[in-house]
Amino acid sequence: MFTLLVGCPPFWHRRQLTMIRMIMEAKYSFASPDWDSVTDEAKDLISRFLVVEPENRVTVSGALQHAVFKAPRASIGTRQSSITNLVSWLFSHFGLNGNNS
Fold first, then answer.
1. Average pLDDT, whole number, for the chain?
2. Are 84 and 68 in contact (CB under 8 A)?
3. Spatial contact of 80 and 40, defined as CB atoms under 8 Å apart
4. How do residues 71-87 score in pLDDT, each as one tens digit?
5. Cα 56 to Cα 31, 40, 50, distances in angstroms
6. Cis peptide leading into 33, omega within 30 of 0?
């Protein structure tokens, strides 16, 4: 979702060990100008996905109940509406039922 919204991955560094450390510590940012047009709700959901400890991450069903997927499409923006459609399609296409398994 991070990459789909802004076109780059949340964790990147030219030095591989630094990038691995960033992943292990969940160090990412919503840097300008890329994130300026993305809503706070979308940033919140992404923050809930990018959590180190799996038991502290949002579940699929929790993510689908998030404000990003409940907001009127006009208020989310074109890019986020596309993300909503894509995620919904992926969940239905792969038979995901909202559990973490």
1. 82
2. yes
3. no
4. 665 444 555 566 666 77
5. 24, 20, 10
6. yes
Closest CA to 44 of 35, 53, 52, 55: 35
- The domain locations on the chain are 2-93
Residues whose CB falls within 8 Å of the CB of residue 8, separated by 6 or more in sequence, listed in order: 34
CATH H-level superfamily of 2-93 = Transferase(Phosphotransferase) domain 1 (1.10.510.10)
**pTM for the full predicted model:** 0.69
Q: For CA atoms 53, 4, 64, 67, give the dihedral sign.
A: positive
Using a 10 angstrom Cβ sphere, with 0-12 exposed, 13-18 middle and 19 or more buried, the burial of residue 83 is buried
Residue 75 is which amino acid?
Answer: S
Rounded Cα gap, residues 59 and 95, in angstroms: 15
